[in-house]
Structures are given as structure tokens and as C-alpha cells.
Design goal:
By secondary structure, the protein is α+β, with helices and mostly antiparallel strands. Among the domains are: 218 residues, no CATH class; 67 residues, no CATH class; 98 residues, Phosphorylase Kinase, domain 1 (2-Layer Sandwich), CATH 3.30.200; 102 residues, Transferase(Phosphotransferase), domain 1 (Orthogonal Bundle), CATH 1.10.510. It has 39 helices and 21 strands. Strands 10-11-12-13-14-16-15 form a seven-stranded mixed beta sheet, covered by helices on one side. Strands 5-4-6-7 form a four-stranded parallel beta sheet, with helices on one face. Strand 13 and strand 14 form a beta hairpin. Helix 1 crosses helix 2, helix 7 packs antiparallel against helix 12 and helix 21 runs parallel beside helix 23. The protein is elongated. It starts with a strand and ends with a helix. The N terminus is likely disordered.
Length: 883
Amino acid sequence: MFGLALISACQLIPGQYNGYFAYASDAIPSGYESYLDRPDILKIKPVTHNEFGSDWQNLKRAHLEATAQLLELYPDREIYFLARDSELLYDYARWALKDQPKALNQIHLLNVSRANMRADHISDYLSQEGISEKSLSSAKKFLFVDTGFEGTIPRVIGERFPAHLRSKLKTHLMCSQNANIPSTRVFLTALNPNAPRLDPGSMHYTIISYEHMPRYTNRSDRFLSVGGRWHPMSTVIGQSDGAVSKSKAISYMQDLLAYAEKEKSLFESRRTFWRNLVKVQALGDLLSLKNELSALFKAHPDDPMIEASIRDFIDIHNRANPQRRIEPGELKLLQLGTSKKYASKHQLALEHPEWASILEDPETGIKSLIQNGEYSKLGAILDTIKNDEFAMIVSKEIIAAKQSPELGTFVDTLIKNSAPDQVQRLVFDIPMPPSQKNLWLLNRVIDLENFKGMEAIASHTFTHGHFEGAFDLISRLIDKGNPGVFSFLSSSTFNQEFMTKRPDLWIKFLEKADLQAKRQLATFAFSQSHAVDMTDVLDLLISTKDEEILSRIVRSYFSKPYSVPHKSRLVRILALGLPAVHLEAARSVYSESHSKAFTDLLSYLINGRNPDVYEALKKYSFNKMFWMDTPGYSEARRAIVTYDLNEREELIKKYFMKPSETEVSNPPKATSIKKPIKDFVAITPSLQKDQWIRTSEGRILQVIERVDQGKRGVVFKVRSENAKVLFALKVSVDGSAETLKSFAKETVKEQLYSKYGVKHAKIIEAGPTVILKQWIDGIRADDWIAQWKLNGAPIDAPEFQKLQQMINSHAKRGVYIRDLNAKHAIWDGHNWVIVDSGGLKEGLSLDQVREEYLQALPNRWAKGLTSPHCEGVAKLIKQYLLH
């Protein structure tokens, strides 16, 4: 009834893989699958697949080398390969030890990733897999194996245990940029022959094909107990990370197994190599060990795999024996950690003739590599060479290439790991305005939060006018909330005329941007004539009452003739009495001829009695000819030029003490307004459709419809005077003490929402009996819950997952939102947004918050459904809400 799939514990997957494995679970929630369903390499038959490219051929040798090293250097440890990235290494090790039961039992596959390393029940899963405080207190030692790069996941696992036990947990990476964790150069050398001479931590491109191999399941993001066992679970629908293909994953396993069987002799010889070194080391004679390593290098000076092996062994030896170190120079090796980046393509071609054709003609060579999907080879060269021409051609060919999963993986690596100028070059090289073909590149820069790349998009991409997809990119840039990005958006994007079509993006920007970006917006955007239509944005900027913002608006906007129709906004600005603003008006506004329309507003400047303002008026304004025949000019001039303070006071009292009161209290009515405007403070819940109202801050709004009524208020949907921006207007039902108290709490609640990061409809204006808020477009929770039930109540629905995330986020912050009814939450397509609620309880424990929500939310959200659906859906929400 609630979307649960009941599957027999012994049911085999039908089809070509029948017999390889059985379902690990007997009851998996709809939309999920268990990672334990991944097939066992020992139950798969070897099959050679010739359709895979050269990158995979090199990767198979890399698996052989790494597995041989790990099994011989760590024979006394429980080895945990971290899935999904290291699962093929686990498979190779499992095959290698298939006839050694005791050693085989020391090999484990552990599905812990960034997505689930802090998930509920992670400790239960670790304990089930043999990692617990009890096991750490025993004689056992443990090793985590992963691809790269910092060892974050092993560190987070270790932090779950007491500090004195963490030394039992070691980590070994294929490519480490953490000085405390060794790399596996033999793995990297199979992919890049120059690896022994490079810093492993810089070789992100080299392992690009490995980290993004096709996987059997999505990345796990939770643990569920099914059939008495904890399962790493992932969604079936959608991809959380990387490419997912069960058929391809099986094919790679088959081919790896065929390779392992074919190269048994090589594998055994490599194990013997490592075993011999360990034996010499175990004798305890440091000189003998040095002589052994030196003899190996001398016998094979041009063999990169031998050099990589020696470097790996020295690295691990020195970590285990800090008092008996071996220095690379003693063996005639370059200092460990030296990153030799070649600037000369000729020099690199001499040392690596297999790359010569690409280096001699990079334009043809790079294009061919990309067309053939040979990204590991291209990555290996990029890890090795530092050449501007090469980087420029790579950028150009990426832009020209047809999008594919493999190209996407390569681009992701470039965005995450390249120098900032390489990502900026990629953005700047995309022809403007960008075609639909190239939008994915810009979106990946944003997805991966490469801030230099995003700054390049904000400063460059929109300067050539509007294009399809532009508004989505701008919205996503705003969502990232980076100050540098905000700075470029305000100076290079929002000053473009096409932006006037989307006032909602301006408002979104103002909600998220820092103060400096808002100041820049006031300078750059409002210096353009098309800004004359952005009255709602102008009102929001004025409402900040920030002296610098208002000074910039005065300078950039009211110094222009097109600002005259918005005289009422200048009144609001000058009425604040801010000295810097008055000074800017004296310099920038009243020096221009259109300011004659603002003559009566001079009273604000003169009433301020600021000598600097008086001097500015004399220097910049009152020496202009257009003022000479202006009524009131002579009195204003006398007031500011006289040195007789008594005379000045008399003039101010006589001419300027009551400045433009009608302007302040009665802003001009737009010509389109035909009906009377109700005063904001006198609004009653009897408002009618199409009626006009005026807010305390001068906004003119039109009622669209009545949308809801609660115990204390009625909510109307209203729109701005230019019909571009929507708002929600909440009007009190009466003037009782309880109602007034309830409305007074609205601003307090908003402060708490912001404090705890709760997405909510923000208050624009607030009065004793009226609240003006953002209008949130979307579907109300009560409407969504009904549709969700009709769809089978899938718990993998994005709305349900976001509800889980929202509750868990509140729990971590120790805050519970009271009376969170379904009609007070709106799904905006990305998140749940709170438009109303009861008060907030603070300072609760994580379990207390969860218990509060479990007791209240399921029934509140399901109560609109008819019985028995109400009870059933409430039960389902309660069952999975906190998973």
C-alpha cells in the first residue's frame, strides 16, 4: 500500500546474470536498492571485452600492481576497500586470495562515502562490518584503501572512536595529496609513465577514468536495516554521482577477471618482488635494505615501474620507521615529492616517445584524444606538462566536442583540480552568447562550485545580451552565495537591459547578496536608463537605509533626468536625514537641470544645517544658470550663503520647516490606477479583487485574490504597480490583543528563521495589523501530499527527501517549528519554504527535535486526506521521515 517492494531473500536476478548473486534483502523500500546486491567476483565467469579503450587496458595493469603491493605490504591488517571507487581493487584482491581462506577473510568492501559517512546508523553498519570500539581494542589492525585525495572518509570514520584507538586505523590511497597518507605510485605509473617523477597529489587527471568507471549502483546515502542486516542504500531513480550501468559494471568485472587469469604469472612475480623487499626489511639491517633498493634501481634505471616501486617502498618504510629513514638521494633518486612539470614539449617527447605525435602537433593530437575518448592519456600529459598553448588547445577542443559522459567526467576533473586560470580560460573561450551546446559546461562550473569559474561567468557570459538559459544560470549563481560572484553580477550582469524582464531575480539577489554587492548594484544597475522600471528593487534598496547604498542611488540614479517620475523615492531617501546622502544630492543631483523638479526637496538639505552640504550647493549647484529663474531659489541661496546664523534660522523657519509634507504622505498615483488607494494602516480584511492599496513605504499594490484565512489573519495575493512582482499580504481579522500580539511576533519569528537557516517567505513590510511578505510560487504541502498519495507515496520523491533533510537540519540546530501545518509550507521546485507557522522552540537536543516532529508533523500534513488514507499516509511519513 505504501510502495514497499517485498522480495524473497533467495530470489535470483533473472537474465544474463542469473546465478551470479542473490538479492541481499527481503524487503527494500520502493525506489531504493541495496549495495549488497552487487555481484561477487568469485561467482562471475571471465569474459574478454574488446570494446573497451586503451585507458581501461592501462587500468587493468594498475589494478594488478596495486593489489600485489597492498597484499604484501599489509599482510597483518584487515583491509577495507572503500566503495564505490575501490570496488574493483577489492575484486582483484578477492580473486588473488580465493584459495587462501584465512587471508580472504581479511579483505572487506565497505560502502562509506561523503554522502553517507555521517548518516544515521553508520556506527551500526561499521560494527556489522567489523569496525567497532571492541574490535579496535583487540589485537587487530585496520587499513582503509581508497582512490584519493585527502583521506576525508577514513578520517571521519576514525573520529567516531576514542582518540587512543585511532592509531589502529591506517589509510592508503592511490593518489594522495595528504602528507600523512601514502600514495600508490605503481598504480599511477601504469597510467602515466612519468608518475615516478611527479608529486602523486597533483595527478588528478591521471586517475580520471578510474574514479568515474560505470558503477553497479548509485552512491549510497543512507543505511537501512533489512532482514536483520544493515544495508547501504541508494536511489534507483536518478544518479547521485557518476555513471550507473549494471550491464557495463558487470562487463568490466568480467574483463578484469579475464585479465587476472591471463596475467597470473606477472601478478605472482610482482607479489614476490614486494615479498622479498619485506623480508630484507624484516632482518633489521638498514644498510642491507639500502643496498637492495640501490641494486634494483641500478639494474633498471629506465624502468618507471621499478622506480615507482622503490619510491612507494621508501615512503611506507619511512612512515613506519621515522628513526631509520632512507633518503631518496642515497639511491640516486630525485627527492621524494618533487613535482617535475615540463615547460618544453620537446623535452617531454624525448623522454616519452609514446606521446611525441601529440606533443609535436597538439591541435591534431588533442582533438584525436578527445574524439577517441582517451582521457587518461590526455590527463597524464596534463599532469606532466605546464604549457599555455597546450592548455588553450584543450579548452578549445572541449568546447568543440560533442557532450558525452566520458567528456563530462574529464571536464569535472578539470574544473575541480585545474589552476583557476584554466577554468577561467574555459569560460572565456566559449563563444558568446553561448549556444545550447555549451550551456552544460557553464552549469558544471556552477555545480562544482568553482568560484573563479563562476566569477568568470558572472563577469563575461551575460555581457552580450540575453540567450536561452541565461536566467537559469543567473539564478543558480545567486544560489551559490559567493561574494565574488555577487560582485560581478551586480557590476556586469544586472546592468544589462534584459534583466528588467526578471525582477524576481533582482529580489532574490538582494535577499542573498552581501552589503558590498548591494552597494555595487546601486552604482552600476541604476546608472542605466532601463532601471527606471525597477521600482520594486529601488524600494528594497531604499528600505535598507544604508547610507552608502542611498548615496550611490542618489549619485547614479537621481542625477539622471529619467528619475524625475520617481520623486517620491527621493523624498523617502532625503527624509532620513543622512549627512552623506544629503552631501551627494547637493553635488550630483542639484547640479543637473532636471533637479528643478526637486526644488521643494531642497528643504531637506537646508534643514540639515550641514556646512559641508551648504558648501557643496554653493560650489556645484547654485552657480548654474538654470537655477536663476527658479521660484524659491533666492530664499534657498540666501539661507546657505549668509554668515548671519540668526538670519539663516529665520529663513529656515519661514520657508523650509515643513518640507513637502504632501509629497511624503501622498505619493503620486500612477496613471493606470483608476480606483481609490486604501491607506496601508487602514486596510481591513474586506479587501476586494482589483482594489489598490498604498503601503507605509510607498509601494502601490493591487489585490489579485483572497487565498487563505486563519484564526488571526486573512491572506491576499497582491502585485506591484507595474504587475511584475507578487507579494502575500496578511491582514488581521480584528484588533484584539491576541491578534495584535500574534502579528507583533511575525518579525521575531523571521529573525529566528534567519538565525537557524530556515527557508521562509521574507517580510517586506510590517505594521501592527498588516504584514507584506514575499510571494512563494509552488505547490502547497496539503496539495502535494494528496498527489503524492495518488502516486503511491514513493519515499524517493524529491519533495519527501527534502522534507527529511529539512527536519534533520532543524534537529542538528536544536530548533523545532511549532504548528507547521501543510498549508503553511510550499514546495518551490527545489525546497520547502515556510510561509507561516507557530513559534520556534530553541535549545532542544537532536532527539527532542525529532520526537517533536514525529509526534506532530505526520498527522498535520496528512489530515486533509480522507480516512483511511489519512492514517496510512501519516504512518508512512512517520516511518521514513528521519531515515
